[in-house]
Known about the structure:
Blueprint: H1 4-16, H2 23-44, E1 48-56, E2 60-65, H3 67-77, E3 87-90, H4 104-112, H5 116-122, E4 123-128
Parallel strand pairs: 1-4
Antiparallel strand pairs: 1-2, 2-3
Amino acid sequence: MESRKARVFQLAVDVAAAKLPDLDAAVQNVRERREETVRCSAMMSPPIPIVIHCSMNKDGHTFSLAPKSKQLVQEEFGENASRCSRVFIAIGDSCSGRIESHVVVPVIQLLVGVTPEGFTKQFVYEFRDPVTDDVIQM
C-alpha cells in the first residue's frame, strides 16, 4: 500500500507531466485517492471489543451489555440499538458454568438489536463475569 506522501508526490508528478488535462481533473483525482485511503483505513481498523456480562445461577444465565459496550453500540447503530437491557436464558436442570454455543447468536441479536452479520464485521464480543471480570469460556 502506498504511503500518503508517495501518493501526493505522484499526483504532483502527474500534474507536472501534464498527464492530467486540467486543475478540475487533478482535484477530482485527489478526492478519489482520499476516499480510497479512508475506505482502506476503515477496513484495516481492528474490531471494537464488546463486553457481554453473564451471570450464572442454577436455573440459567442472565446476559447484559457492559455500560461502556452499550454506549459504543448505541453510538454505532443509533438509539434503536440495544433496547433489551437483560436477557435470561433458562438452561434446565443443570448449569455447567459454560455458555452454550447455540445461545450466543440470539443473545447478541437481542442485546445489540442488529443482525449478527452486521455486528461481527465491526465488533468482537467476549462474555465476562460481572463480579470477577473473568472471561467466560464457551
